[in-house]
Design goal:
Length: about 230
């Protein structure tokens, strides 16, 4: 299991490279779909859990406008520094990147919406964590989770090998330990798939007006919903 220190070291070291991947052409369409699923209105408050370098912040800020509030939560200072620079460059006064652990609901609620992109696969107890996020929502509040996992489409089968290699390379933790576990057949991709399924189940069990979509041949999945009024 990857601990919080390993996560901080990994993302702190690779923050620059990660930011380029996070803002690569094509990724923006997935981010737009995830933020659209939150159905944000001007003036609302949205919290992004595991905001990384802030690639979603422009989409969220655009939707809540100057009178809303965007809080980005991440455990890694290196990525948050980049998120803060992004906020400063644009002069946004209502976007707040904060260093905290998203598994311990670090924000006072209720809030209108919660977003988590490419982060649920990193939590030891993804279902419990997402349940905590759902508890943070006001009645009628919305949640959207966007994650990458192995594709179950026949056409994507050969690409699952490439995806496994990507997961292995981008998984925090000691390289030798990661490789040993992969050789033993305990690849991190299987854990990733299980965690994403557990996080999604929390949304499907508790939410109404559920939405789901897949992108990139089924490698990227969106699940979203609304807490009943
Ligand atoms: C793959 S990156 C995704 C970043 C961003 N959501 C995006 O879509 O580009 C995962 C991020 O989750 C953060 N993270 C991992 N575990 C966390 C936790 N328990 N609390 C807050 N952030 C966490 C990492 O520091 C990293 O920035």
């Amino acid at each position: 299991m990857v601990d919080a220190d390993a996560t901080r070291r990994f993302y702190g070291r690779w923050a620059g490279l990660y930011d380029r991947v996070a803002t690569a052409p094509g990724v923006g369409a997935w981010r737009a779909a995830a933020t659209d699923a939150l159905a944000l209105s001007p003036g609302e408050t949205v919290v992004e859990m595991g905001c990384g370098t802030g690639a979603n912040l422009p989409y969220l800020r655009e939707r809540v406008g100057p009178d809303g509030r965007v809080v980005g939560v991440d455990v890694t200072r290196g990525v948050l520094d980049r998120a803060r620079r992004r906020v400063e460059r644009r002069g946004w006064r209502n976007v707040h990147p904060v260093q905290a652990d998203a598994t311990r609901v670090p924000v006072d609620g209720p809030v209108d919406a919660v977003l988590g992109t490419f982060v649920c696969g990193m939590f030891p107890d993804p279902r419990g964590t997402v349940e905590g996020w759902l508890d943070l929502l006001a009645p009628g509040g919305r949640i959207a989770l966007l994650d990458a996992g192995q594709s179950d489409r026949v056409a994507a089968a050969p690409l699952n090998l490439a995806f496994r290699a990507f997961v292995l390379a981008s998984n925090p933790g000691r390289p030798r330990e990661r490789l040993r576990r992969a050789v033993d057949g305990e690849g991190p991709w299987a854990t990733l798939d299980e965690r994403i399924a557990a996080a999604s189940a929390a949304v499907t069990d508790r939410c109404v007006d559920r939405q789901s979509a897949t992108f990139a041949l089924g490698f990227v999945r969106l699940v979203a919903g609304r807490i009943p009024d």
